[in-house]
Amino acid sequence: MFSKQKTILSHSTYEKFTGMDSGSPAPYTEDYNSTYSDDYSDYYENPLDNQLCDKSDIIKFGAVVTPVFLWIVTLLSLFGNSLVLVILTKYENLKSLTNIFILNLALSDLLFTFGLPFWALYHIHGWTFGDEACKAVSFLFYAGFYSSIIFLTIMTIHRYLAVVHPLSDLGSKRLCYGSITSSAVWIVSCLAAVPALVMHKVQRFGGVQYCEYTDKRWKIGGTYQQNFLFLIALCVITFCYVKILGTLLRSRSHTRYRTVKLIFTIAVVFFLGWAPYNVLIFLKSLSDIGGIWPFTECPVSKGIDFAFYVCRLVAFSHCCLNPVFYVFVGVKFRSHLKKLLKKLWFCQAGSVDIQHRSSRAVHSNGEELSLY
User: Fold this and answer.
1) 219 in Cβ contact with 288 (< 8 Å)
2) pTM of the shown model
3) Does the keyword Nuclease apply (predicted)?
4) Closest Cα partner for 210 from 218, 198, 202, 199?
């Protein structure tokens, strides 16, 4: 029926080779279809193989778009989040609970960002950094991923308490609350990233090295862990924003209507960024578990893989969008940025420092010191 010289890429081989069996960016090489097999059992067992499902166009799309996109996100995130840290430490009161969370969010986004250059190069050349770097980069990436989502949720809860329950006792011990909460978030995030540290290893296939999970069960478990955390965050954020919007809409303050617009934007960006990605990694996990229809159909499988590439890039770009939607739209941030630019480019350090000290003296109480 088929000669043994026929080039065959089984579904499991394709998933392994392109990295699309996991949430990590996939390496690509022109040799993607150069694997030969004398054993056709896999070919007949998998419906995708029976159809000779050609996904070379999807692989090439990912090979061109993913590295470029990841480098752009890396540069924007490094610039944006570093600028946030500079503004916070130079002009703001870090005893403010909101500012403490913004500081940690910027740090978690930077931690997430540190893995992107490695993955951009990984997508082009395969993994060339060794086994220890594979484990370390995977751990740092997932720790940044989890801490970013948790801090977004914590910030939402804080906004909820400040708006819906303004008399709650957060102001008097805000530094203590901020330190304890931030430490707890980092501990939980690091513990959640431990499986990635332990179970990632460099593997060689077809002349290319890969940094992947060594066990499919751990890989699927990691996917469900991401889904579970996202669902919890989604439920909490939805509940809090519904309550916040209800409270603010009952207010006739023009300033509070602007806050409604900002909060609505934040919620929409969060949902659009992470929801499609989490749906796609869940659907791909169903394919890993077994041949579940219609995911075994070639058009459906190709559509999911293409959507996976796109949704993953959109989700990863959230680390560079956070400074825009959480900080850059803030009136105080723009004011601080102007002061910083004047100091850097127009040598007006003296007047800037005087304005800065007077501003902090006037706003020495409460959460007004935040960048919102």
Assistant:
1) yes
2) 0.77
3) no
4) 202
